[in-house]
Design a protein that fits this description.
By secondary structure, the protein is of the alpha/beta class. The chain contains 9 helices and 10 strands. The protein has a 6-stranded mixed β-sheet, sandwiched between helices. A 4-stranded antiparallel β-sheet has the order 2-1-4-5, with helices on one face. Helix 4 packs across helix 5. It starts with a strand and ends in a 5-residue tail after the last helix.
Length: 247
Amino acid sequence: MAPFIRYVGVHKAFGANAVLRGVDLDVEEGETVVVLGGSGSGKSVLLRHTIGLHRPDRGEVWVDGAEITGLDEDDLIETRKKVGMLFQAGALFDSMTVEDNVAFALREHTGWDEERVRERVEEVLGLVDLEPEVGALMPSDLSGGMRKRVALARAVALAPRALLYDEPTTGLDPITANTINALIRSAQSRLGVTSIVVTHDIHSAFTVGDRIAFLHDGRIRFHGTVAEAREGREPLLRDFLQGGGYA
């Protein structure tokens, strides 16, 4: 069976700044791969290639057996229905209630009536341990942890087959970060989704990941299980882990 997500020789530069220098990475269906690396290593740039927010200068990106790099915005809609994304800052619409945020994609991409939309909103809020009453709140009423939960609920509303997480625990206190880590694991087990989590948080990486891919200087320098990553046989990864992960 082909990987659900595959990056083949992906290069990306912004002006003279080469960010990705030939990334090869396979993500199998149903697993969680953590892309670990320091700030500015290209983790988020790689993630955004998965739904066409960035296009590679060279290389290929495959999602569910389809090569997507040449698709236009209309053709990318089907890919984006399959792949939900939790952006680093949550990216909620500040002028919309929580309910309207979560319902946004349902209203855009389904022909459901409002009763069915509301039922689905309540369902996915429940998946992230939020009560239906939260739907009436505005994003400005939410704590950082609640914003992340609402963003996750919005990401899963269309029942995607894959979820992308961009630094999901950044800016959260340790207790709230642990809650988000638990939700990521729960989403994988309850929904059976394929997940990619990009982070520089070592604790988060080892908590949520099935496999670790270490991105350094635009290339994957290590790819293996969590146990193999802990062994630290790759010198660059070992230095990163010993340095606390924020280099």
